[in-house]
């Protein structure tokens, strides 16, 4: 029979073999670390900025048209031409309206002549007739009194007195008519008022005719540049039809849409560097003068308007432009690519960091975002290694990709 020592050695060998087999199996079956991209978090000063695109906003774009219906006689401007305020752009045929205005002027002349006639001729004549009627009345009254005395003394017959009484009544009626006529011809009389009313009516008709005649000339409302010419001689125009498009002179402005996430980086009066896409070598400054109070819900963007104090000559209305607007300087900020932060747009954002060869989930609090990067306010420290690879789960073994 084997000695006890031999049995112990055999058992030990068996146990060692079994242990070796188990360790080998564990090593073979253990998950292999996933190669991942790691970012070493470092603190540094970062100059933030907002980059956006937009267009040149015309100071005022106006559509010029006629206010009356007519045939176009001539068009005096072409696209690209500079015009001055009040300059004639389009002329309509005006012969008929000119004749109407001439008739109205003649009617005014007649009405003024009648007013002058009432003041200088009719009124003095009526006043002279009134004085004559008053004199005739005095004579008739004297004749009637004398005849009454003569009748009382028996020198005349009653028929003679009756005749003098009738004559007195006639002169009294004539005086009343003369007074009425003189009153009518006075400055505040009916005749004068009628003449003045006719003059006012004629002047109003003349003003209307001249206004319509003036409407045959379509003029520029201000200094500017012709953008479009949409009418030609011989065309029939009518109210509401667009004839000429003008870009009026004035301060040049840019309008851009920026992501609402960049609002903390924008302040009133900030100066951006702008460039037109058509002239990438021509850079100019533009200052923020307006930040919209609302957010476009469809695009999640906010409208900015910027003043260009010294616009370059090549700048044109509606040109596409890009701006680079500097924001605040972040002191010793921890910046990550926005893609490295999981669920960034939720209330519980987090990142994966490397801990002892495994991916570990860490909650973070994002700060400012700029140009695709996020400042981490809480949750990380300098020296942490953040997992950038998206196809990794919490707790998975990882290793740095070579």
Secondary structure blueprint with pairings:
Elements: H1 4-29, E1 34-36, E2 38-40, E3 43-57, E4 60-64, E5 70-75, E6 82-83, E7 88-92, H2 95-153, H3 158-185, H4 190-214, E8 217-219, E9 224-229, E10 236-237, E11 244-248, E12 252-259, E13 271-276, E14 279-291, E15 301-308, E16 320-337, E17 350-355, E18 358-363, E19 365-370, E20 373-378, E21 385-387, E22 398-400
Radius of gyration over alpha carbons? Answer: 52 Å
Q: Which percent bin holds the helix content?
A: 25-40%
Instruction: Give the rounded overall mean pLDDT.
Output: 84
Span of the ends, CA to CA:
60 Å
What structural class is derived from the secondary structure elements?
alpha+beta
- Run of helices and strands: HEEEEEEEHHHEEEEEEEEEEEEEEE
Uncertain regions: pLDDT < 50 for 5+ in a row? none
Quick one: how many beta strands?
22
Net shape? rod-shaped
Q: How large is the count of helical segments?
A: 4
Q: How are the strands of the largest sheet arranged?
A: 3-12-15-14-13-16
Percent range for β-strand residues:
25-35%
Report the biggest beta sheet as strand number plus sense, adding barrel if it closes: 6 strands, antiparallel, barrel
């Amino acid at each position: 029979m084997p000695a006890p020592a031999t049995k112990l050695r055999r058992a030990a060998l068996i146990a060692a073999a079994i242990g070796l087999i188990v360790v080998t199996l564990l090593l073979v079956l253990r998950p292999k670390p996933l190669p991942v991209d790691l970012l070493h978090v470092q603190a540094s000063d970062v100059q933030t900025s907002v980059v956006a695109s937009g267009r040149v906003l015309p100071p005022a774009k106006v559509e010029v048209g006629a206010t009356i219906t007519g045939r176009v006689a001539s068009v005096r401007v072409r696209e690209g031409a500079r015009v001055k305020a009040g300059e004639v752009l389009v002329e309509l045929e005006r012969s008929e309206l000119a004749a109407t205005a001439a008739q109205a002027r003649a009617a005014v002349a007649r009405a003024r002549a009648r007013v002058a006639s009432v003041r200088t001729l009719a009124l003095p004549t009526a006043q002279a007739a009134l004085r004559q009627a008053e004199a005739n009345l005095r004579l008739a009254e004297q004749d009637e009194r004398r005849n009454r005395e003569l009748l009382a003394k028996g020198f005349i017959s009653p028929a003679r007195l009756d005749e003098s009484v009738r004559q007195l009544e006639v002169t009294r009626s004539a005086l009343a008519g003369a007074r009425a006529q003189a009153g009518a011809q006075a400055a505040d009389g009916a005749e004068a008022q009628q003449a003045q009313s006719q003059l006012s009516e004629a002047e109003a008709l003349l003003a209307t005719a001249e206004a319509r005649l003036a409407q045959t000339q379509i003029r520029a409302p201000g200094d500017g540049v012709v953008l479009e010419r949409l009418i030609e001689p011989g065309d029939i125009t009518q109210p509401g039809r667009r004839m000429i498009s003008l870009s009026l002179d004035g301060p040049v402005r840019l309008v851009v849409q920026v992501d609402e996430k960049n609002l903390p980086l924008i302040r009133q009066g900030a100066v951006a560097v702008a460039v037109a896409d058509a002239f990438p070598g021509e850079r100019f400054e533009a200052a923020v003068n307006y930040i919209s109070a609302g957010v476009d819900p469809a695009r999640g963007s906010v409208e900015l308007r910027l003043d260009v104090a010294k616009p370059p000559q090549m700048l044109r209305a509606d040109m596409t432009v890009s701006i680079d607007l500097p924001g605040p300087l972040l002191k010793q900020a921890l910046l990550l690519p926005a893609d490295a932060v999981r669920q960034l747009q939720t209330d519980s954002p987090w990142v994966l960091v490397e801990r002892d060869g495994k991916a570990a989930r860490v909650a973070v609090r994002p700060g400012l975002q700029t140009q695709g990067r996020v400042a981490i306010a809480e949750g990380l420290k300098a020296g942490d290694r953040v997992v950038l690879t998206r196809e990794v789960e919490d707790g998975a073994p990882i290793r740095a990709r070579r």
